[in-house]
Specification:
Blueprint (H helix, E strand, L loop, with lengths): L6 H6 L1 E11 L2 E9 L9 E8 L4 E5 H12 L5 H11 L5 E3 L7 H9 L12 E5 L3 H12 L12
Antiparallel strand pairs: 1-2, 1-3, 3-4, 4-6, 5-6
């Protein structure tokens, strides 16, 4: 997902990724596809793969991963659960992006300026993770918080 970006995606600074889920027995199968902004539907499970041109790396936000997990599980998490998930994700070494952190100002503003689906809730510091750890993050949280699904995510982007 983080490779072969189109000119439009590079200009916009993100790629939209739509996920689908299929629960077979005790196995959660997750697949994804790239979609253009024009195809975005708020009913779909869509998160942003955010490109940071200064480092040529792709990222996802903590807001997006929690949204993705809620949609994969099929129910919203309470505030305490979201905080527990954030603590568990700390092991993946997120980077805090804010408007006051020198070399992250432009990246922070780019994240704040995205149209829906917005990879943030409010305009404050946001934690970002390398796109390369998305599968690990989903598997880690699903394994801890979903008692019905005993196996890890079997299919992914």
């Amino acid at each position: 997902m983080a490779r072969c970006r189109s000119y439009q995606e590079l200009t916009e600074g993100r790629r939209l990724v739509r996920f689908s889920r299929n629960l077979v027995d005790n196995r959660l199968q997750v697949s994804c596809e790239i979609i253009p902004q024009a195809e975005y539907d708020e009913e779909d499970i869509v998160i942003s793969c955010v490109y940071r041109s200064e480092t040529r790396n792709c990222w996802f936000t903590s807001v997006d991963i929690i949204y993705l997990l809620e949609r994969l599980v099929g129910e919203p998490f309470c505030v305490e659960e979201k905080n527990r998930i954030r603590r568990n994700l700390e092991g993946l070494k997120p980077t805090t992006v804010s408007k006051s952190r020198g070399h992250f100002e432009a990246f922070f503003q780019r994240i704040m300026d995205f149209p829906p689906p917005k990879p943030r809730n409010i305009e404050k510091d946001v934690k970002v993770f390398p796109w390369s750890v998305l599968q690990e993050a989903v598997g880690k949280i699903i394994a801890k918080y979903v008692s019905l699904i005993r196996s890890t995510v079997t299919t992914f982007c």
